[in-house]
Amino acid sequence: MRRYGKHTDEDDIRSRPNRKGNRPRTNIRPKHEGAAEGLVLTVDRGRLTCLVDGSPIIAMKARELGRKAAVVGDRVALVGDLSGKKDTLARIVRIEERTSVLRRTADDDDPYERVVVANADQLAIVTALADPEPRPRLIDRCLVAAYDGGLEPLLVMTKSDLAPPDKLLELYGDLDIPYVVTSRAELDDGAAADRVREHLDGKVTAFVGHSGVGKTTLVNALVPEDRRRVTGHVNAVTGRGRHTTTSALALPLAGGDGWVVDTPGVRSFGLAHIDPSRVIHAFPDLKPGTEGCPRACSHDEPDCALDPWVAEGHADPARLYSLRRLLATRERKEGD
Prior knowledge:
Mean pLDDT: 82
Low-confidence stretches: 226-245
Number of helices: 7
Number of strands: 13
Strand content: 15-25%
Distance between the termini: 78 Å
Oligomer: single chain
Largest sheet: 6 strands, mixed
Shape: globular
Helix content: 10-25%
Radius of gyration: 26 Å
Structural class: alpha/beta
């Protein structure tokens, strides 16, 4: 066995070849400056359908992105085969910076957050007025997630032929949330879709709601070219409908400049990822009153400065009540 002394030269050093090839490893990643721009329409078991120059392309995430995942609504950069032909596969090499993110967790004890949709402008919260009964706590949780993620909320109430909307409108009136009330007959004749569409033009709108409220039926009416299977019967005992939407899907709005994102029906909307201190940003009329709050004030404690500030007439007490109701959503179950 040859041993090397202190004065060896390069000819004496034996280098071992790379078993996976002779090209040395490097941490420098390609910039892919010529990559095509695309929009993620849906994700299915690691395969992503992206819209590139008006055509759907099937792609997969590049290994260099690591654990970073692309979701519906993401703006991405793609390389590889962009023909869109059968059995071809492009590669997503970059995910552009997001302007908004709608996230949720399975429950309030789950530390793993799930990104539902990226870059949406608006969150349409769909709730039935009856059959199944409204779940205000679930609506509250969706509102908190919308405010935290940078989305504007829109409340869509369906099945007004079965129950009036007065109670829900009274409950959310102080939040100044735009709303639309629809009936089953209006869904059939297109009148409901026309009224909802007025709030969607020029925007990317994510639709959320628990099963049986008519969310997918409404999306079908808004995007007739891409009809999706209508929600099945609602169980008479549990009030739950079958999940007909299994993954989020972005669809171009018919007759307008906008996008509709249909999401799977939810039975829970965990907020473990939400910092309660950020909820106040959804109440700009109350924010000046927090200047006198103690450090790390939750705005729902005895020495909160909002109480005397509102009592002095600087803001409507109903707005403070609405803020604290939303802050308390993590402490209550959605069905309460």
